Each structure stands twice: as structure tokens, then as C-alpha cells.
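Cross-posting from the modeling subforum.

Setting up a comparison between two proteins and wanted a second pair of eyes on the formatting. Protein 1 (sequence, then C-alpha cells):
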Amino acid sequence: MLRYIKRYPFSLLVISSVIYLSFFRPPSTDLNEIPYLDKVVHVCMYAGMSGMLWLEFLRNHRKFQAPLWHAWVGGLLCPVLFSGCVELLQEYCTTYRGGDWLDLLANATGSLLGSVFVYLVIRPRIWKTNCR
């Protein structure tokens, strides 16, 4: 466990922030009148989480070859599954927030966008080895 804390500190910080933002009661503001602003926030949160998981994976595996499918599982599949668990917990364990299938779709979209961006744009610049 301590190994993961040392190797993925920023990812754990982002995950903790997403957990907090998913379960706190947001204040009522004029921004609530903007339609689907909540979905944009979900896309940004999960794109950031997925991107950070990818970046730290690539940083930690620079010196030796690692299967790239590990990054796809950890950077795309895990955030989507995490998102599903959060939505279920919001639906059944909180009284002030309900789970929303559109939130899950927005979270999956954000995870996909973050993963694809890091894979296509950033990975070729920082991961010089030819990993499979």
C-alpha cells in the first residue's frame, strides 16, 4: 500500500478530491441555472483523474517496459467502475444527492477523453521506449 502512495501521490490526491466533490452538498448559486453545467464538471473531473493516472503510470514505467494495457485498465476502466460505484452510493446512501445515469455517461466520457489525450499527445513525448 505504501508503494502505491509513493508512486501515485498526485493521482491519489485527485481521487480524494473527486470523492469529496461527489459527496459534499454544493451551495446554491446562479450557476445552477446553466443547463448541464454539472455534466461538464463531471467530464472535467474524470478527464483529470484519468489523465493523472496515465501520467503517473508513464512516469513510473519510463525505465522498463510495461504492458500498455495496464495503463488502459488503470486509466480508463478503473475510473469508469469507480464512477459507477460513486453513482450507486449517491443514489442509495445519501439523502440529498441522487445517482444519475447521465453523470455516469459524463464520467465515462471524461475518462475516455483524458486517456486518449494522454495516449495520443503526451505519451509519445515522454515515453520513448516501444512498449506493448
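Protein 2 (same layout):
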Amino acid sequence: MIADLQCVVLDCSHPAQLAEFYRALLGGEVNRWDQRWACSDDWATLHTSSGLVLAFQRAADYRPPIWPDPARPQQFHLDFGVADLDRAQEQVLALGATVLDVAADERSWRIYADPAGHPFCLVHHLPHSV
């Protein structure tokens, strides 16, 4: 092993606002003290209950990706497992997400953008049987 994943960093215009969006989606604590970095107007973090840390970094002249335009590609995306796609969709839209894929047919996933334009997917996740 060469490294441990410390966090996933998302560029954006408003780090604190985007951290709050993901806190409402995933739970956790925004800007919890962590010796690995200092929070500021240009850097916010979200420590989730699963142990994942997302960080949000202010980028000068931030330009969001445009899905699926290769001239401004998505750069990355996050997949979130949910038990009920319809309910989860209502919740993320209420938080400020936008729908990127309007063809919500019988697929087991749907594609959205967070308030800063980063694509993410809600994926139907069946509970594991023991």
C-alpha cells in the first residue's frame, strides 16, 4: 500500500455552503477539528459517520462541469446507495440538487448535480442479507 485516502476534495465557489449540502445528504459534522488541515473561508470539511471525509476547496473562477459535455467534463462523480430512489430524489431536490438525467425509467440509478454543479448518482441499494 502506498497511501491512505484522506478525503475527497471538490472544487467549488462556496465551500461552507457545499459542505452543508452534503451534511444534509449524508449526515456528519462540518468543519470538525482535524490535525490534517485547517478550515477557513476557502476550505471546509465534512466528517461523515461512515468515516469518509469530504473536503470543499474554493477555486478562483470555478466553472462547474456540464454533463455530459466533454468540453467541460464531470471530472469525477460520487455514487450514493439508497433504499428508495423516489424518496431520495425528493430529498436531494429539496436540498438544492438538480436533475441531470431526465430519463428516470426503470434503471436502478439516477443522475443529479449538487448546488455547485458536481454530478452524483443515487443508486438503488438492496440491503445485504445475513
